Each structure stands twice: as structure tokens, then as C-alpha cells.
Amino acid sequence: MLERVRLWLRSVLLRRRLEREMREEMAAHLERATERLVARGLSPDSARRQAVREFGNVVWLQEEARAARGTEWLDALLADLRFAVRQFKRRPWMTLTMLVVLATGMCITTLLFSYVHAYATLPPAGLAHADDVVRIRGSQTAGAYGRRFRTFAEDELRAYRTADGPFTAVTGWTEARVTLDVGGEGDELPAQAVFVTPDYFTVLGVPPALGSLLSARDTDDGSRAMTAILSHALWRARFGGRRDVIGATLRVNGTPFTVTGVAPARFGGVTGGGERFHVWLPLETRRLLLPGVPAEFRAAARLRPGTDLRTATATARVIAARAAGTDPELRALDPSTEVVPLLSASGDPMFERDVRLLVLWIGLLALLVLLVACTNVSGLLMGLATARRHEIAVRLSLGAARTRIMRQLLTESALLAVLSAAAALALVWLVTSLATRLIPGLPFDLAVRWPAALFAFGTAFGVGIAFGLSPALHATRLGLADAMRDSAGTIAAVRGRLQRTLVVAQIAFTQPLVVLLAAVLVLVVSEFETVNRTAIGDRVAALTLSSAAATSGTTAAAAEAGRQARSALARVHVRLREAPGIEAVAQRWTATSPLGSWTPHPDDAVAGTTGGAVRLEATAADVGHFALLDIPVVRGREFLATDTSRDDSPGAETPVIVDMHLARHLWHGADAVGRRLRVASDTASGPRTLVVVGVVDDPAAQARRPRAAWRVYLPPRPTQPASTLLVRTTGPARAQAASIRQLATETAPGVVASLRTLAEIEAEQRRAFRLITGGLTGAAAVALLLCALGLYAAIAFSVAQRSREIAVRMAFGARGSRIARRFVSDGLRLGVFGLLFGLPASLAGLYVLGARVTDFPQVPLPPVTAMAGLGIVLVAMAAAWIPARRAAAVDPAVTLRRG
Amino acid sequence: MVPPNTPFLARTLDLIVLQLLRAEPTNGYDLTLRIQAISRDVLNVNAGSLYPALYRLEQRGLLKASWATSETGRRTKVYSLTAAGRKHLAGQRAEWERFAGALEAILRVT
Predict the structure, then answer these.
(1) A256-309 pLDDT, tens per residue?
(2) Mind spelling out the 3-state secondary structure of A540-570?
(3) Smallest CA–CA separation between A73 and chain B, in Å?
(4) Tell me, what's the ipTM?
(5) Of A8, A54, A65, Cβ closest to residue B51
(6) CB distance A238 to A270 below 8 Å
């Protein structure tokens, strides 16, 4: 057996030498036969001739010999490959197009698939997969939305940690946004601090990249407790990746810590957090940094060997029920706990069903992209195969087996697929490294995991080959006579029909993509249109005071934390007002609440106005808000302290400040101050009559779209204090950032203060906006390009097919431009058919999108679809025009002579 | 004039080649001469049949080939049997004898 393999290997690897030896052997044989015949008396020439005759067909014998050696398949394959390469070299542009299209399709499919796989089945970035590491995840009811995740209070966490049962170790952590001060340069860094129990890193199985990570003994010695572990990204970015970072001092919110270790690369904790940098600190230090603020914990654990998830969940549920105790408010939330594998997907989303939907959508999207790419390439290959029908017909007539030719065509598409796969790999690597650099803080690992990538790759590869099969099958089916006759009859019609069907299919697939992308683009644009550039943005800072909790937990802890933050804010507000270098301080609210439909009060209506209803949404504005932001008050006044005691009883009139454009819309240039608005829709709560006390010139408040809501300002409710202060400084706000924050932390020691100038906030939003719109536009452009390519190929093929017919027409006097117009209209017809077929899918997609996005009715549906459709049609016309122009340039004499 | 081959030759060529090469390893051309000589011109194997058979047997590991220099100074490829080849030959012989015996018995029936 082994001998056979060795011999087979030898015949494959030493083919050339064996061939040479065979020729030598045959030559020797012939020579000796000739000699023998000469010895018998024949002349050398006739002896030779006779010897050759007796020898038999040398070529046939060599083929037989090769067959006997079992390597003819290899020879055939090599010959096919050489032939394929020659074909590609003859048509470089077409080959390049097909390569790019396939590579892009494969790349996108692989990326999408790989990310979804990583998100749904793999642990968060930096964690190795281990079967016994689990997440203890709390949930509570969320009304109509089903259930949402909840965090644990300290005593519940303790209960899990001390429970004797399914877990060998349980670790908990709680997070907070902090500011880091590195090495006294004064350059402060927002980061996410994770306060962890001592066994955090051992339970998760995370080895240190540098130094040592926390272990149980660190807590015994109080003096060693001020240790910090840096995230890898933080270490690279701010400590230059230096090994001497161990022992360095790091100030967290002003308190010094000693760095004892660096977490491994890509590890950013179990929950994403959104911040780019992380520090892990011992749980005991939280009392120093955030005194009095109740903590909200999340937990992970190691399962005892032999325990399954169900048993563990049952135990956890019992503990959760006991922890909820008898508090009716808590019990009403129906808190529960489950034990799940530790995956990226099990960490973050608010509502669990989102994950399944996300996976489904992305899978469909990936499939769609792949289909588009493949139909495109299939169409191009079809055109290629048809252009070679002469050659194929001749080969068939010379005796080539149909399977042989099919194999050769398949080798071509396989070679194409392999080359595209290599290009796709390069693309994937490029995109991944770009994305990790441009988008920090993603909740899941961006690196491409090889198993998923290989699977996606293999599928793409297989689909690519399958789509190459159809052209191969068709190209070999024609008869010799028909091919040689080159009639514009049946064959061309059949082949052309297939290609045109492919193009229509491709446009039908692309249309939903383009339409949905356009819809999302419009949404994003309309959202971010309101990001204005505040004139004095760099002199106004937003100071946010927050409790430690990033998301809300059980009611009691969240309420208490909120209360503390709010009273702290009031104290800071007072202190800041008197501080030097501060011009003005006001509370800031960013949330808007819809108020419904309103009409001008009939008693206050101005003659000649139509009195139509307007939709309003309200934001709270503090006393002095407009002056602080340099928003001119055109008429009337700002809110006064007395306005804040508004009440919503039916007869009361709530003061409101409106933008001057709204005033003009409602009262046409008459003085709006003192006029009232009455609610037109039936809202259960909220004010029912508004009275205008001031008119401002605020571009942010204007409604940009016909049915959009106008923003109006209401005085704040005393029960609804803000969590952010706007601070206007005399000079650039960034320069005073440190002193402002210091003042805040001195006044309110229990709370975390973070500060950003308005200019920075808006720049960040604009950056995100540009990124998203850029990405969407790019994707839509790629989709349109694919359409164009397919159409171009179809029309070019059609032109080439009918070149004789065109030549004859032109010889009879038809004008070139008229012929070109016919081809353009042909392309147009294909585009319209594709649009029609793709329309149901597009509409379905838009409908689903509208159901999920609350603000969707604002986006005008028909114009979006029409615009996308128009875009495709224009692209179709352009793609058809280029080859059509070539048709018009056909020289009848040349064509007819060649035909 | 090349005498016609009997139709049984094709089936038994492997056996013939193996047996003769076992007796005396030689090259392809000499083998054709030997077949012709020993069978007294009854069997005539031309190159087109012989070499494929030789290569096939070599690929199956029953023959091995080595290059040697003949007396005339020419390079020839000499085929000889391997151990597996000898075993195969013995098996084929036994089978042939069984078959021939049975055939003979049938042909004796009148």
C-alpha cells in the first residue's frame, strides 16, 4: 500500500523526468528495430519506415503510457490551467472586473459572517473560549418589551459568591467612568474603571500581558490595595508600551494608584462599555473614589465540573428570589437570574430578541451581497463563453468529449474563484486592520476568526463555482453547424436570453440593497441635520455629574444614586457660579419629549392665518440658558425662576419659548408674546395650554421637514433636575477644564465629574455622522457599480452578437445614433424589469425598517424609493450607452468582410 | 508481414511479461524479441501494447526499472520483478492452470 503511494507520488512529482525517459526508451526501441531490419537487408530509409510502422502510433502510445502511470489527470489539469491563464490574458479588463466583483462579494460575505459568528458564539474580545466560564445574568420585566437585563446589588452578589452549589468561583464587577491622569502632564483621559473582586482574572481565565493581575492576597494587606491594571490599548497609547510601566503611578480621579499589570491585548472587560480605555481596580478602592454611591454589579462564574447550565440557573433563581425579599416594588419587577455561556452576545443588548433579529438580518444581507456578486460574474462569464463558441464548436467537432470541455471551462471559473479568494483575503485583512484603528470601543472582537472565515469563504467559493457552471453547461450545448453559421437566430437568442435573465435578476437583488441603504442614509442625515455648530462652542463646556452606574439596575439602587447625583449637581451649580473665570452656569437637558399636535388658541389667532396644527416636542431650558449660548431673544424674555413652578392642571397656562420661525408660521409676523397655543391631540399628561413668553432665534429648534416637529422650550420641572451643567468660561473652556472638575469633585465627593466642551461634543457627532454616511454611501455606490457592470456586460454582449446585423443595417442607410438609441432603450428595459422584480423585496424591507424605527414616518417613503429607482435607471442608461456607442461606430465594410 | 495475434493475448499479456521477466530481466525491445522467439512466432507483441503493460505493472509495484548500460554502450531501461511481482505471478499462474485445466476438460467433451 505504502509502495503504491510512493510510486504515485513519484509519477506526479517526477513527471518531466519520466516523460524524458519514456521518449528515450521509445527512441532506443526504434533504433534497434531499424538496425535489425537493416541487417536483414533493407535500406536504411525503408528500414526506418517499416520499423515505425511496426511500432505503432507513438503519440497514442505515449498517451496510453501516461494513462497507465495514472497521471493524465494532472497533465489535463495543467493544460487547462495554462489555457485559462491565456484566456484571461487575452481579455485583461474583463478578467479584472470579474476578479474585483467576486473578491468584493467574498470579502463582504466573509466579514459579515465572521462578525456575526464571533458576536453570537464567541466570548468577548481577549477571552479564550472555555466551557465552564459562564455569565450570571439578571433580568427583570420591561413591560411591553418583554424582559431586560438588570444588575445586582451588593448583597445579591454576595449571595451568589457564598452559595454552596453549582459554582466553584464567582466574580463580580461594577463599572464607572473615570478620568485618568498619566504622569502629571495634565493631559486627562476619560476611561472606564472596572472595580473587581480579587478573583476576577482567574475566573475569566485571563493571563496578564505584563506584570501580575489581581489575586486574592492583594486584599489582605491594605497598603497594597491601591493597585491598578491597565488595558492593553491604554498601555500602548499612553505609556508607549514601555515595560517600566509596572510601578508607575496613575491618578484615577485624582487618587494615586500603582500600576501592577497590563491585561492582554484586545481584552476590554466582559461588557463593552464604549470607552476606549479600561483600568481594573480592586473593589475596596471604590469606597474611596465613589463614597456612598450604591454599586451595581454584574457577575461571572466558573461552573463546578459536572454541573450543567440548567441546574445552575435553578439555583441562581432561588438566590434571586431570596434577594428580592418582600419589597413589593422590587417584586413587581419580577427579577430573575439565569446562567448563560459567556459570549459577546450575552453581554450587552437591552432586549434579548434583538440578537436573533440581528443575526438573521446580517445573514440575509450577506447572502444577498453574494448573490449579486455571483449573478454579475455569471453574466460576464456567459458573455465570455459565448464569445468563444466558435472555438468550442470546433473542438467538439474534432472529437473532444463534452465533459472535457466542461471541465476546462470549470477550471477557468475555479481559477478565477481561487484568485478572487486570495484577493478577498487581502481585502479582509485590510478592512479589519483599518476598522480596528478607526473605530475604538466596539463591543465585540473585530479580528476575523479563522473557522468562521473559512466556512464563509468555502461557501462563497462553492457558490462562485456553481455560478460558473451554468455558462459552462450552456456553452457546450450548441451544435457545430449552428455555431459556425453564426446566425443571429436561436443560439444567440438562447444565450442572450439567459444572460439577460441574469442581469435582471442581479438588478432585482441589488435594488433592495440600494433602497434600504438610501432609506437608512436619509434617516441618518435627518437625525444629524440638527447638529449645529454652536458659535461659542469652545467656550462652553458640558459638565456631567454621574453616579457610578452606567445603566439602571434595581429600582432602589438606581433611585438612590440618582438622588445623590442631583443634589450634588445643585451644590456644584452654586459653587461654580461664584468661581473666577466662569461667566455663566445653567442646567442642561438634551432629552426632548413629544407634545403632540397643537393649534393657536382661537382667541389669539391672527386674522388671515390658516390655523393649521403643528407638532411640537419640548426640551427644558434653564434660567439663563439662551444668554449662555448666545442665542438672541428676539421678543419677550427668558424663563425666570418663577416660571419653574409650572403645573399641569387643566386650566393652567404653561410658559413656553418658541423659535421665531414657528412664531411666524403661527402668527405671521404679529407679536407672539402673550399668545397661546392649545393642544389639539388628546394627550393624557402634559400641559394643555401654552403661553408664549419669549421668542428666540434658534436654528436648532426649527423643523426641517414638512411633517417634522418643532422644538419648543419649557421651563424645567423641579422634580426633573438635570445631570449636566453648561459652563461658559471667559477664555477657551478646555483650559479651565481641570479647575472646573476639581471644584466639582471637591463640592460633591461622591460623584464622578466628566467634562467636554460643546465644540468637542459636536465634532464627535459630526465625525460619527460622516463615518456612517460615508460608509452607507460607499456601500450604495458599490451596489450601483455592480449593477452597472452587469448591465454593461449584457449590452456589450448583445452588441457583439448582432454586429453583422448592425453592419447590414448601416450599409442600408440606418444612422449610427439611431442604432445606439435602440441599445440604450434595451438596457433601459432590462433595468426597469429588474426594478419591478425587486420592488416587492424593497417594499417589504422598508416596511420592516419602518416598524422598528420609531421616527420613521418622518422619512418620506415614496421619494426614497423613487430616488433609488431613478438612480438605478440612470446607471442602467449610462452602462448601456458605452457599448451602444461602440455599436454606432461599427464600420459596415469591416464587419461584413470579417463575418 | 506481421502475423496476426491470437485474441487471447490481450488478457494474458501481464502473465507473459511477468513470467519472462522473472526468468531474465531485460528491456522492452528485447522482450518483444523473446516473446516472438519463445512462442515460435505465434505471439507477436508490438510496442503499442507492450510498453503500456510494462508501465502499468511498474505503477502497480510488480516491476521495477533501472537504467543500465548495455554491451553496445547504449543506455537501456531494464525491467525486473519485485517481490510483490513474484507473488502476483505465482498467483496468476495458479489461476491460469486452474482455468486451463477446466477449459481442457470441457473441450474434451464430444
Answers:
(1) 888 888 888 778 777 755 567 888 998 888 888 877 677 888 888 888 888 888
(2) EEEEEEECCCCCCCCHHHHHHHHHHHHHHHH
(3) 15
(4) 0.84
(5) A65
(6) no
